Amino acid sequence: MRILNSVRDGVSGAINFMVDKNRKLSLVSKVKHIIRDEEQRANEAYIALGKYYYHNLRDKGNSETEFYCAEADHAERRLQRAEQKLEELTQCQSEIYNFDDEAFEEFCRECEENGCDGCEGCRPLDVAEEDDVTDEAEKADEQ
């Protein structure tokens, strides 16, 4: 009888241990899910706040925020160029079948080589103007 009671207690203890462990894992999983959801909501709120700032409160005199606004402008120009290229590629089905890798690489080869500061469509205006001034100064030095 004692042997059966000790086996029963052992099995019962093991089952209770597994139930408690599963409960704890379930709670941990739920808390992690809540954290992920709240982080996502916070990120969406930050994005909405940033868009509002960019469109309504942008101050070109503030050098701290203007850098990020210029980056947003730069990204928007690149996005527009990529969308335009996608539209060109999808307009004619025969062009897609004849499209080769070289033509795609030419799309923005300067961006690859120069970190996207080399082509006119990607450069921020202030960088483009500085490069033009530098180019003119270099040409003057060569002469």
Main sheet overview: none
Name the helicity range.
Answer: over 70%
Radius of gyration: 30 Å
Structural class: mainly alpha
Number of helices: 6
Shape, principal axes of CA atoms: elongated
Count of strand segments: 0
Structure characterization notes:
The protein is an all-alpha fold and 143 residues long. It is built from six helices and no strands. The longest helix is centred in the N-terminal third of the chain and has 56 residues. It is elongated. The protein starts with a helix and ends with a helix. About 8% of the residues have low confidence.
What is the gist of this entry?
The chain is mostly helical and 143 residues long.
Tell me the layout of helices and strands.
Blueprint: H1 2-57, H2 63-91, H3 93-98, H4 101-107, H5 109-114, H6 125-142
